[in-house]
Amino acid sequence: MAKLTFMVGGLEEEFKAAQELFTCMGANVIYCGQVGTGQAAKLCNNMLLSIGMIGTAETMNLGIRLGLDPKLLAQILNMSSGRCWSSDTYNPVPGVMEGVPSANNYQGGYGTTLMAKDLGLAQNTATNTRTPIPLGSLAHQIYRVMCSRGYANKDFSSVFQFLREEEAQPDGAPKRA
């Protein structure tokens, strides 16, 4: 089951007044500071989540192409330095875990459209603050392309399925459905 985290910005006394309500809905409630800092924390978290999911999907895809059993590869990653939430809690490969969107044709979860939206907000914020985010920018591009190719209503972990469909043919041309 998901554990919601509320990242809250605003006046501290107002946060304290609402904190009990937040704890009824989420497992973690964190005061981030002034107005806007809660949203900033969420954007940063979701940018890292999207980058980690793409990395996990690429890694699992490569391992499968190299002949590794995906459950075995996930087990190895999750006891090694490659362990991350996208591999040990929300694995994007169908059949590796139960109870996650990849086990249900990528239905449910956090939609690709929502991830693309959050990455767009992160991109705009990075541009406004002159902060380089090359991996965040690439993740934004990947999720935007996914939205245009029929993944908009699937969970963002469907990036694994997207990458599988984009595998290069022997002549270097990508597969097209």
From TrEMBL:
Catalytic activity: 3-hydroxy-2-methylpropanoate + NAD(+) = 2-methyl-3-oxopropanoate + NADH + H(+)
Assigned keywords, A-Z: Branched-chain amino acid catabolism, NAD, Oxidoreductase
Pathway: Amino-acid degradation; L-valine degradation
GO cellular component: mitochondrion
Occurrences of domain 3-hydroxyisobutyrate dehydrogenase-like NAD-binding (ranges): 36-162
GO biological process terms, semicolon-separated: L-valine catabolic process
Keyword Acyltransferase found: no
The EC number(s) this enzyme carries: 1.1.1.31
GO MF annotation terms: 3-hydroxyisobutyrate dehydrogenase activity; NAD binding
Superkingdom field: Eukaryota
Pfam families xrefs: NAD_binding_11 (PF14833)
Protein family membership: Belongs to the HIBADH-related family. 3-hydroxyisobutyrate dehydrogenase subfamily.
Protein name: 3-hydroxyisobutyrate dehydrogenase
